[in-house]
Amino acid sequence: MNIAEVLHNLLFDYTLRTVALGAGILGIVSGALGCFAMLRRQSLLGDSVSHTALPGIAVAFLLTGTKSPVMMILGAAVAGWLGTYAVIQIVRRSRIKTDTALGLILSVFFGFGLVLLTYIQKLPNSRQAGLEKFLFGQASALLVEDVITMGILGGIVILTLFFFWKEFKLLSFDPDFLEILGFPVRWIESLLTLILVIAIVIGLQTVGVVLMSAMVVAPAAAARQWTDRLSLMVVLAALFGAISGIAGAVISSLTAHLPTGPTIVLCISAIVIISITLAPNRGLFWKWLRQLNDRRRLALEAVLLDLYELSRQHADPQHPHSVETIRTMSFHTARVDKSLEILEEKNLARRIPGEYWAITDMGRAEAEKSIQNMERRT
Amino acid sequence: MSMAQIEIQLIAAVVAAACALPGVFLVLRRTAMMSDAISHSILFGIVLAFFITEDLTSPFLIIAATLTGVLTVSLVELLGKTGLLKEDASIGLVFPVLFSIGVILVARYAGDVHLDTDAILLGELAFAPFNRFEIFGVDIGPKSLWLMSGIFLIDALFIFLFYKELKLSTFDSALAASLGFAPGMIHYALMTLVSITAVGAFDAVGSILVVALMVAPPASAYLLTDRLKWMLLLSVGLGIAGALSGFWIATLFDVSISGAMASMSGVVFLLIFLFAPDRGLIAAARRKMRQRWEFAQTMLAIHLFTHEGLPEANRENRFDHLDEHLRWNEPFSRRVVSLAEKNGLLRQTNGFLELTPSGRENARKAIVR
Fold this sequence. Notes:
The structure holds two protein chains of two kinds. By secondary structure, chain A is mostly helical. Chain A has helices at about 5-10, 15-40, 45-65, 70-95, 100-120, 135, 145-165, 165-175, 175-180, 185-200, 205-225, 230-255, 260-280, 285-310, 325-330, 335-345, 360-375, and strands at about 320, 350, 355-360.
């Protein structure tokens, strides 16, 4: 299948278009909101919210008897918000730490959700089939109706983010300052949590309870590596989220038996790996390269200084010294030969037949300069 | 009670006990979410090993899955060490990847074998007794009962043997390191323990609910005691209580046993969170209330003490003056005065308040403080 065909399907194939659109919206919203979760060290809140949403979905079904996306999302959001509130209260009112509170609420709510799901399954009417799709997500079952709901809610989330940008930014970086400025910090915090919860629950149907947490953490983690600016980070995270959502949808549509949710997660994880290794400045590859460079430069300087030191022991500064002497003096014995060769290339040292070396005038000047530099620094 | 029901309860109790032991250290070391990560990512190991052994209870599968758990921990630490991500973000990145690979493997290649993600994620305790353990053709009980008992013993033995090391590295890892106890080694040993337990428990209760059994009972016990030994024992006890009550509720309403076990562990936590003798919400509220009245009485005693014997005492040390001076409304003043009277801090005559010697002592102490 060639690219043109994929594009054609993306635009005109009903199922693929719906799924890709849904996954794209989900990626944008969770990516953008994930940035704030990450900066506020609440990455695992996404995990907790998505699990705690399960009983809400079940209760919504039990109360209304329908599977309308609005009701499901409403139920999920209420339960997710309740779970988050419980986590915050447990941490505030007892000596239990955040990680324990998260694990506790997540698993207990999920267990209760499971109880309700099994209860629903045994009810006489059979309209309940399909609630399990929230566990692992079932992107292929997305309807246009679902996507429209996701789009509207996602739009509200993004608009809220836009209108309260300044407040949310301050909340993430300096909540104390926000309070001093007279803003109602608690309310802003609640608002941010609320739209994070909405961002998470609109994705549940597509990638499922278990994997939704990755959609909160991963795009933000990838975007963080490329920039130090919040605005750019949010845009990048949304972009990464959207790309992986659409790519995951397309890839899984091309292959038989490839579930969409996990594929999306693997796509975004690939972006994370690329970002961690290759992002300029922070990327591991560049860091490694810088370290290598530093090590080389330091080794080179050390050998030059050794040569300079040796030359000062003799009346004739051009007096040749054997490689062995330099090697004995040097800290990095392994790099001595290589460093000497580089020094020769730079005309800082001179090779004398029979494995002997001497410093050049240029080398002396260079060594004196770096000694001066060192003295000035200390 | 049928034989199967007894066996299910035995398995449930042993699973709960086995999970509670390492869970105590997870809670104390603030790494509770690691259990979530491990229990999810072992899916990957279970699936890989299952393709090779085609047996969900083979020891090879348990080893492979345990290794995946340890792999998760080291990947999280590796990511954390780059300094590019915080630890919680690393956890949130690693386990979904391994879990996704696991789910994809199941979806693609396990269509015709007996393995589905629902079973691994959610578990079904009701089926556990069907898988029997036979030696020389003699049926000696359900396989998972033996497996979990073995894992429980390993957990208990490890904690017994390395109690001192675990305790020290949990509460003061810097001291443990300086005494040469290698907290890193202990951390990994503990994580291996968590992995083994999670692997053993997944087919009984499912991987997500393993988290409930590992976190909820120790969290409850943490609110009841300050002693590690008691916390271990209480966690096991509370875990078993949650598991058994969960089983009965599940039987009563015909719902998922593992889900009910997790829910009941949550209920046990809620009860303790509210009613714990010292740290419970209600105890704290009552303490706050008591302190409020005690504080008011002391305030009153100080007020009377400062004006006692001075010319203005006649005006100041009267009941109807408290509103003006201390900003107390009348019902509140009356309550405080009657409490103080009952406690022998003052005497009231015709609206005039006079300190008793013990009231004077009380005021003097409070001022010095």
